[in-house]
Structure formats: C-alpha cells, structure tokens
Amino acid sequence: MLRRLFTSESVTEGHPDKVCDQVSDAILDACLSQDKYSRVACETAINTGFVLIMGEITTNANVDFEAIARKTLRDIGYTDEATGISADKCEVKILLDKQSGDIAMGVDQKKNQDEYSLGAGDQGMMFGYACNETENYMPYAIELAQKLSKKLTELRKKGTLEYLRPDGKTQVTVEYDSNGKVKRIDTIVVSAQHNEKVDITKLRQDIMKYLILENVDHELIDIDTKYFINPTGRFVIGGPTADSGLTGRKIIVDTYGGTGRHGGGAFSGKDYTKVDRSAAYAARYVAKNIVAAGLADKCEIQLSYAIGVAEPISIAVETFGTEKVPNEKIVDAIYNNFDLRPYAIIETLGLRNSVYQKTASYGHFGENTKDLSWEQTNRVQVLKDYFK
C-alpha cells in the first residue's frame, strides 16, 4: 500500500532570510509605535558584512533605521564575523523613498469619505488555512518543525548547547493513515550551525537528547523513524557569510508549510493596508473559526481584491471533503458574519498595533502567534448560531 507522506520545514531566526524579515518588521513596528498611520513597504537584503534596507516608507515617526538593523542582528546573536556577520562592524545602507502617490490614492481617506469604503492597496489573492490536526488548528508537520527550530535557538541562547551559532533549519515528514489522520513521524532533519571546536558525534547526540527527544511526541515515533542531524557533518560557516538573505523569501515557512495554497505575497515589512498581509491574516482568522466551530475538519479560504476597491472580488472555500454543511452555506456564513473589507479587517484584528516583529520568526500562525488577534476563535458561537 502506498504511504501518504508530507514534509514541512522551518528555519531559525538566524537564517539569512529570516534576519531580513526581522529587520523589516522591526522597522515597521518602530514606525507604528510612533505613528499608527505609517505606510511601510520595507525590504532588507543581507550578505557578507553588508545590510541593505530599501523600499517606501511614509511616516511621521522619527526612526533610526540603521540602529534598528544593528540591534536586530545583535539580539539574534550575530555579534562577530565568525558567527556570520558582526552587528557592530557590518555596513548598513539605507535606500528608502516615500510611498507612491498612485497607491496612496486608493487607500488613503478622503474628506467626508466613509472609512469602510477605503480600497485595497493592491490586487491579488490571499489564502488562509486551518485544520484540526493540532490544538492550534495547524498542520502537524509545520507546527512541529517550527517548534523544533524555535527550541534550537533557545538551546543556543540559554547556553545549554553553547557551541551552537544562529543559523539553522529543521524539517519534519509526517505519515498519514487512510483516514487522513497523523499516524507517525517518518523523518526529522536538523541542520544546526556550530563553532569549529565541537565534535560532530557530540553535536548529534546533544541534538537528539535536548532537542528531539524532549520536544517530540514519543507516541508518534517508532523504530522506523529516521533522523538526519547535520547530515553533511560540518556546518561552521553560516548566516549571511554563507548565503545572502532577502525579506519575503520564506513564504511557505511563514504560513502552513506547503499545506494548502499560497497567493504568492510575502508579509514582513508591509503595513496593515497591504492586503498581502492583512487579508492573509483575515483568511486564517475565518478558516480557524470555521474549523473550531466544527463546520469542517479542514478549511482553506481564498480572498481576492482589486486595488482601490473595498469589497473582496471573490471569496472561495475548499474543505477537502471534510465539510459538515455544504460549502456554499459556509460561503454564505462568511459573507454574513465577517466583514472582509480592508478597513474592517484592520479594525476587527487591531492591526495598527506594533506586533509584527514577533511574527517574523517561527511562523505567522499557530503556536508562535496564538495570543494575536487573527488566531482567536471568538466567532465560533456566532457561526454555530448561524447554522441552528
């Protein structure tokens, strides 16, 4: 019988792409903390000894962009060239312009204009997903991969494994049974950057003991589960010295680990008027409440928008045959119980708050952000009442 396997990966906060996401979101948070109406589209690129901050920002905030970049690097653990980059010695270049007036026309409020009629900042489609595989309504593989990458960083920062360096990756392969339920963990992959002094055998033993065995559900591990820990052996050179990084290049790590579809738009460095981010959060919020209400075991929501137009162009629902009520009725429930115009999303989810750097590592959904607005299941009773 053909086994059904699915794999998801995560990366640590020291991965070059994630460094860039954190710098961009740290800048966004700094702008919003002083001016909640800041318009930010900030991208960061990083390479050996060099950080480039570019994009468009319109704000009344007084922000030291270079200082934020250096602090972010320092907080991650990039304190000298041996680790991958030096927060204090690297070059930081700032290339920022103001937001295009052509975009602002569609999203800025005009005199006497109803705020709820404010249009989307761009066209495009966004997806949200939820399932009942975990308590956080996330697919199991990505939830565990994110947990392992976060714990790997904690082992480094707490000094438990003092030889670790900031860069790293995890990967989890899950096997499903014939009913689509998680049956077992087939494979776990961990690649951890380290200093040149540690013996690879010791590193592998430590990772197994402190990372895997302490954080993985033993009931899902069996004698056939495979482990690959630093499979090439040596991982001394890492971070921006080994690979360049760029904001928005880990969109699958940021979302559902490859489960469901993705509209292609990245999140980090974008303010709440950008539907790439706000509508993706809203789609997750809707999907999670639908699954939590028991209307389906799995739910994928697609929203689409046109620039300058407030109402979504379309709302689509896919429940993969797990629906308890017809999909067309779920769509009706969404239209009647969720206002998905951009301004309404901003108000409902409180997106003017500076909470975004928290999302820039270990995922925008699930355990990492469970205290944030789009992860709340506060519409469950409303949905249940709708179907009475």
UniProtKB/TrEMBL annotation:
Top-tier EC class: transferase
Residues binding K(+): E43
Domain of life: Bacteria
Annotated binding of Mg(2+), by residue: D17
Nucleotide-binding in keyword set: yes
Names of the cofactor(s): Mg(2+); K(+)
GO molecular function: ATP binding; magnesium ion binding; methionine adenosyltransferase activity
S-adenosylmethionine synthetase C-terminal domain boundaries: 237-376
Alphabetical UniProt keywords: ATP-binding, Cytoplasm, Magnesium, Metal-binding, Nucleotide-binding, One-carbon metabolism, Potassium, Transferase
Comment on bound cofactor: Binds 2 divalent ions per subunit.
Limits of the S-adenosylmethionine synthetase N-terminal domain: 4-100
GO cellular component annotations of the record: cytoplasm
Amino-acid positions noted as binding L-methionine in the UniProt annotation, renumbered to this chain: E56, Q99, D243, K274
Domain named S-adenosylmethionine synthetase central: residues: 118-235
GO biological process, one term: S-adenosylmethionine biosynthetic process
Main localization (coarse): cytoplasm
Subcellular compartments: Cytoplasm
Catalytic activity field: L-methionine + ATP + H2O = S-adenosyl-L-methionine + phosphate + diphosphate
Function, in words: Catalyzes the formation of S-adenosylmethionine (AdoMet) from methionine and ATP. The overall synthetic reaction is composed of two sequential steps, AdoMet formation and the subsequent tripolyphosphate hydrolysis which occurs prior to release of AdoMet from the enzyme.
Quaternary organization: Homotetramer; dimer of dimers.
Record's protein name: S-adenosylmethionine synthase
Organism the protein comes from: Lacrimispora algidixylanolytica
Record gene name: metK
